[in-house]
Design goal:
The protein is built from 15 helices and two strands. The chain is mainly alpha-helical. It has one domain (5-292): Farnesyl Diphosphate Synthase, CATH 1.10.600. A two-stranded antiparallel ribbon has the order 1-2. The longest helix has 28 residues, at 201-228. It is globular.
Length: 295
């Protein structure tokens, strides 16, 4: 039976949202301005792709989706912190995110910065704070995520992205930006979910190839959406990359070649997990969803 990937994503997002609701400070907890800002951005919507990838990877190696919940919650907190900071005037200066005013437009720049900081730090509290967890697996997953989010991963890619704005950039620079700014955290999502479920090294090798391919495919698809999508579909201003002079796949190789490369990466990702059998069906569905999505 074919998997209904939209239903799967919705079901796993509901599980994640319930866990985040339980683990995050309440809006009224002191100081309320900070906790309101954290929850405002964390529960602003979205497909929860990174945490769902972690849950699907857990299932693919014989675990349960719930086994990956500490990792899943941590990943969404880190992703949300990065969006809050990306939207700030010093970086992308965006007024809308997922169709609503960005965090700094609602709460002010200072609180938005601190809300992002708080989400980053609480991510590791959630990941490491569960009693009875396998300590070695938790430590390894925490290390994977920290490296993916730091200067050798997402933050490093973000810096090169900023420094490349308005300049001619060679293809290797573009590839570095996409692999690090976006791809590293997606790869860590897949690997860390499987690690918490007790994946062996053979399974992790297959999932690493999968994660590398879907991580890059995801950002190429984002580049294409920025050219072809509407503001209503994306929940933010369309055409922002071109206005800011960002280096993207369409700007260097054109939309059609970008689309071909994204499709090729999806095929590569699916082939990488062939040996995992039916348990990896959700991962296959997510790979296809990544390039077909409209937001």
């Amino acid at each position: 039976m074919d998997l209904d990937i939209d239903r799967y994503l919705d079901e796993k997002a509901a599980i994640l949202n319930a866990a985040l609701t339980e683990r995050l400070p309440k809006e009224g907890d002191y100081p309320p301005s900070l906790h309101k800002a954290m929850r405002y951005s964390l529960f602003a919507g979205g497909k929860r792709l990174r945490p769902v990838l972690a849950m699907a990877a857990s299932e693919a190696v014989g675990g349960r989706a719930e086994d990956a919940l500490p990792v899943a919650c941590a990943l969404e907190c880190i992703h949300t912190y990065s969006l809050i900071h990306d939207d700030l005037p010093a970086l992308d200066n965006d007024d809308l995110r997922r169709g609503a005013p960005t965090c700094h437009k609602v709460f002010g720049e200072a609180v938005a910065i601190l809300a992002g900081d708080a989400l980053l730090t609480i991510a590791f509290d959630i990941l490491t704070g569960r009693e009875g967890a396998h300590a070695g697996r938790v430590l390894r997953a925490a290390s994977e995520i920290a490296r993916a989010a730091g200067s050798t991963g997402m933050i490093g890619g973000q810096v090169v992205d900023i420094e490349s704005e308005g300049r001619e950039a060679a293809f290797p620079v573009l590839e570095y930006i996409h692999i690090h700014k976006t791809g590293k955290l997606i790869l860590a999502s897949v690997r860390s979910g499987a690690i918490l479920a007790g994946a062996d090294e053979g399974q992790l090798n297959s999932l690493t190839r999968y994660g590398e391919a879907v991580g890059l495919a995801f950002q190429i698809a984002d580049d294409i959406l920025d050219v072809e999508g509407t503001s209503a579909e994306m929940g933010k201003a369309a055409g922002g990359d071109a206005k800011k002079g960002k280096v993207t796949y369409p700007s260097l190789i054109g939309v059609e070649e970008s689309r071909r490369r994204a499709s090729e990466l999806v095929e590569r990702a699916i082939a990488a997990i062939d040996g995992l059998g039916p348990r990896a069906e959700a991962l296959r569905g997510i790979a296809g969803f990544i390039v077909a999505r409209r937001k």
